[in-house]
Amino acid sequence: MVTSADPSGATGRWVLELTGSGDHSPACRPPLIAHATQTLGPDALSWAVDLGHEMATVIISEMPAFAGGEEAFQTLRMGTEASVISGMLTVVTGDPAAVRAPQEALDGDRDFARRGIPLDLVLRGIRIGHAMTSEALIDAATRLLPEPERTAEIRRTSALLFEYVDGFSSSMATEYLSEHDRWVTSAAAERAELVRQIIDGRPVPVPKASATLGYPLERHHLAFVLWHEPGTSAAPSDLQRTATRLLAGSGCSATLVVPYGAASVWVWAAWRSRPAHPPRLVLPDEPGTQVAVGTLGTGVAGFRQSHREADQTAELVRSSATGTPRGSRATWYADVEIAVMLGQNLDLARAFVARELGPLAADTSAAAELRDTLDAYLSSERSLATAAEILHIARNTVAYRIKKIESRTGRDLRHRRLELESALRLARVLGPGVLTKEG
Known about the structure:
Structural class: alpha+beta
Strand content: 5-15%
CATH topology of the largest domain: Globin-like
Largest sheet: 6 strands, mixed
Shape: flat
CATH architecture of the largest domain: Orthogonal Bundle
CATH class of the largest domain: Mainly Alpha
């Protein structure tokens, strides 16, 4: 075992001087974040979060098998971030054996096994992560430490990280193989594969598929995607209980719940007769649990389409997340359909919003106030009085703001109304994802 050469604990303390950008919120769960904050400090933790985000991006770019939308990225990022934190703790404590493979990494490992990502790719991802962590920490030591301590500390850091990643790789391989063996022999695997076939549009025998799933595919369906936001403390298994409570009193005749990833589930509810109104949902009390809802569909095609809508809605909500866990909420596809369709390419959406809104596209409270005023004004057919009622402000205030908007944007609000309202919708739903940062 490699241990610190300095009994006072000074060796490795340079890690605490690292600082991050603050651009990314932590993906790991509160217990690990609290421990890292206490041991490393908030600045060094921010550095770890940045590196974990970069590692996940690089791994997906080199091995597309890990891709699969925002949910798959966040699952991978949770593991890479946790491994960076553990590597830093190893350097600080000088004891690799005391730093076990974090639960976040093991959760992601089990997800990789269930998704059929080969073990050799998982181990390759670990090697990429180790190389990036080693290089980043050694570069930092080179910057922060003077000679003669630098050379000895770089040698020590390299040895510690090699010893840590050896144990980490072993734990990950063991967990992967155990989960793979459990999964391939389970009824859950058969059901998940069947659901995948339906979603992918492959033909299935409806009576047999319904019997396998224990769910009537020929009925009327409404699909949901439930997930925990990064940084929440709820366990993945809590989502299945949440899904059951979600539909209490909805009148549905059957439900299907399929775990997906490390922090989300796919859900379908079926009705014998097409309901006249959308069901009332029982949202969970815990913060950070989000629900995306599709539209009602019938038969296998409706089962598939409603899920795709819920999945796209979930992607939209995830992409517009601020990084701070919010209160639980449900987002219906019907309410954000335009934003979903227009926001498929964030770069194009951002350019569109900037072009249509001009200075109103700024990510500031002042610009947001003007966007809200313009939205109310247009939705009320350009009635100052009605807009004032919607916003609960004086009519003269609305008139003043509209003149200010016309002056600042230099456009006639009667023209290109569809584009203008679409840009406002994107700004409202996607927020900072398509707005212009100051400076």
